[in-house]
């Protein structure tokens, strides 16, 4: 199993759509994949049309509750089989201006915080786990990083670089506590539009600003061309690579996923 996280502490980087599309394409390519929604906004869960806790379904919070109580976790009750991928949904509960999952993790011992999700790595039926994350620092992000093998930083503008540094800093701290290596798979550029004649200049400026030597020298060759039809599918809560297959962005995500597999070793 290889666990891939899409992370940045900056909103609007196409993080959720990139994570969802990548999970779907990995499955379409024959790789059994699990999507984990680590964002309390639950955009990924909504795109997969997964059922919510209000409909009687369990979610990521239940994984934390059971682990904290030292009870066995029945993933058959928690994992939903959606079109495109199996899914562990996020939890949208807000507690004291923070997400409920992080609030519950904060009640755990320091040692347990890094082991909350370790049972997910024992789900041997999956080749890949793809994690979406919130653009905020949280205990949930730290706990998910503890099971992550590879981070992908979606870059929509220069501000996303600062967000990548924040996640990288947290990952470095997790490595110190766990002794586990977290690799940076690379930077995924997600801002290209067909009408942007100046995109190459923006791309070059962003990469220069990134100080890639601190992370990893790899920048994916793929650049995600987001068009109106692709965005419209997201507004309808549809997964674009399933419903809008011929859009530029859908084709780009297929190319990116194949490039990713080559990068991390299929």
Strand content: 15-25%
Determine the structural class based on helices, strands and strand pairing: alpha/beta
- Along the chain, the helix and strand elements come as EHEHHHEEEEHHEHEHEHEHHH
CA gyration radius, whole angstroms? 18 Å
Number of strand elements: 10
Helicity range of the residues? 40-55%
Shape: globular
Keywords:
266 residues, alpha/beta, 8-stranded mixed sheet, 12 helices, 41% helix
Tell me what you see in this structure.
- By secondary structure, the protein is of the alpha/beta class.
- The protein is 41% helix and 19% strand.
- The protein contains 12 helices and 10 strands.
- It has an 8-stranded mixed β-sheet with strand order 3-4-2-7-1-8-9-10, with helices on both faces. Strands 5-6 form a two-stranded antiparallel sheet.
- Helix 1 (15-28) packs across helix 12.
- The longest helix is centred in the middle third of the chain and has 20 residues, at 159-178.
Set out the fold topology.
Blueprint (H helix, E strand, L loop, with lengths): L1 E5 L8 H14 L4 E6 L4 H5 L12 H9 L6 H4 L1 E3 L2 E4 L5 E2 L2 E2 H6 L4 H4 L14 E6 L5 H7 L4 E6 L3 H20 L4 E10 L6 H11 L9 E7 L2 H8 L4 H4 L4 H17 L2
Helix pairs in contact: 1-12
């Amino acid at each position: 199993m290889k666990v891939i996280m899409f992370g940045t502490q900056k909103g609007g980087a196409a993080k959720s759509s990139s994570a969802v599309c990548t999970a779907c394409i990995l499955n379409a390519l024959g790789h059994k994949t699990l999507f984990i929604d680590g964002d309390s906004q639950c955009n990924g869960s909504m795109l997969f049309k997964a059922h919510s806790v209000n409909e009687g379904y369990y979610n990521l919070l239940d994984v934390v509750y059971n682990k904290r109580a030292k009870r066995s976790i029945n993933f058959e009750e928690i994992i939903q089989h959606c079109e495109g991928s199996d899914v562990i949904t996020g939890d949208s509960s807000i507690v004291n201006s923070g997400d409920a999952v992080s609030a519950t993790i904060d009640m755990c011992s320091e040692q347990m915080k890094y082991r909350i999700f370790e049972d997910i790595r024992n789900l041997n039926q999956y080749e890949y786990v793809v994690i979406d994350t919130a653009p905020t620092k949280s205990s949930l992000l730290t706990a998910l990083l503890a099971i992550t093998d590879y981070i992908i930083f979606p870059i929509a503008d220069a501000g996303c670089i600062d967000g990548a540094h924040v996640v990288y800093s947290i990952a470095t701290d997790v490595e110190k506590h766990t002794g586990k290596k977290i690799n940076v798979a690379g930077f995924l550029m997600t801002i290209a539009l067909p009408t942007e004649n100046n995109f190459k200049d923006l791309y070059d400026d962003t990469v220069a600003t990134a100080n890639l030597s601190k992370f990893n020298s790899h920048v994916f060759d793929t650049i995600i061309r987001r068009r109106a039809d692709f965005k419209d599918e997201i507004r309808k809560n549809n997964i674009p690579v399933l419903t809008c297959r011929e859009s530029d962005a859908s084709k780009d995500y297929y190319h990116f996923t194949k490039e990713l597999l080559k990068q991390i070793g299929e």
